[in-house]
Amino acid sequence: MTDASASAHVFDATAARFEEEVIGRSQQAPVLVDFWATWCGPCKTLGPVLEQLAADYNGAFTLAKVDVDQERELAAAVQIRSVPTVMLVKDGQVVDGFSGALPEGQLREFLKHHGIEPAAAVEEPAAVTEAVAPPPVDPHQEAVRLRKAVDAEPDNAGLKLDLALALLQIGATGEAEKLLDALPANLATDDRSVKARARLGFAALLHDAPPAEVLETAIAANPDDLRARHLLGVRHLVSGDAAAGLAQFMEMLRRNRGYNDGLPRKTLIDAFRVLDDQDLVSRYRRQMSALLLS
């Protein structure tokens, strides 16, 4: 196969597949068949021009290359007497042709005479740049930033609510509670304020609770330690890792739904009330329902 045959619009034709590759293909678009030989000087001039035109015309026609020394039977069947010889096949029939190497201008005129004009290039779809998720916000840095913002705008109650929420994430529940208590009435009933107070309820459960590492070690030693699972789930929830928190509460429900007067179910419901990620909440609601109904 020639180097140019790698093109989408140029291919090497053979006797075995001539009916399919040339005659059949010509039913969709014209096929120009170039009969050539390696020893033929004019072929070396004409071939590259035809290949370039095939690329330029972008599928308005297809160029089939036939090496007459490799495909002697095919060349004899179509009565090729000299090379280069070019035949134009349309709708399954040979409609025209010529012998010898024509210059590019005459080749274009030949194609135009048969209604073959360059096809518009198909625009490649613009590369979609994958959205790069912003790096996670460090809750401690966020609390520092918001403290400075509140200092700069001490009357901005919205910033104080933002600070309270950030403080809850780093466990500064006392300071967060004071900020929430001082909010004006319009913000005290804000959905974020209500959820923040619910989070305070979870945070209160962590008073004197072991750190997460100790709780994880306890669970590894005894997977049925539901108190440790409960506290670890609350720690995850308060710190902002809702999925990890819900996973612990769900595992409590799987292991013992009646534990501590139905605490696993109650904790899941309370968690659903404070979370903003409704997809996550819906997923765990379905899991809880399926488990309770099983």
Features:
294 residues, alpha/beta, Glutaredoxin, Serine Threonine Protein Phosphatase 5, Tetratricopeptide repeat, 3 domains, five-stranded mixed β-sheet, 55% helix, elongated
Please explain how this structure is put together.
With 294 residues, the chain is of the alpha/beta class. The protein folds into three domains: 3-113, 3-Layer(aba) Sandwich (Glutaredoxin), CATH 3.40.30; 139-204; 212-293, Tetratricopeptide repeat domain (Serine Threonine Protein Phosphatase 5, Tetratricopeptide repeat). Helix content is 55%, strand content 10%. The protein is built from 14 helices and five strands. It has helices at 18-24, 41-56, 72-77, 104-113, 139-152, 157-169, 173-181, 185-188, 191-204, 212-221, 226-239, 242-255, 259-274, 278-293; strands at residues 10-12, 31-36, 62-67, 85-90, 93-99. Mean pLDDT is 87; it is low at 1-6.
Uncertain segments are: 1-6
Going by CATH, the homologous superfamily of the largest domain would be Glutaredoxin
Q: Biggest sheet: strands, sense, closure?
A: 5 strands, mixed
CATH class of the largest domain: Alpha Beta
Give the rounded overall mean pLDDT: 87
Which descriptor suits the 3D outline? elongated
Roughly how many Å is the radius of gyration?
38 Å
Spatial arrangement of strands, main beta sheet: 1-3-2-4-5
**C-alpha end-to-end distance:** 66 Å
Give the topology string: H per helix, E per strand.
Answer: EHEHEHEEHHHHHHHHHHH
CATH topology of the largest domain: Glutaredoxin
Overall number of strands: 5
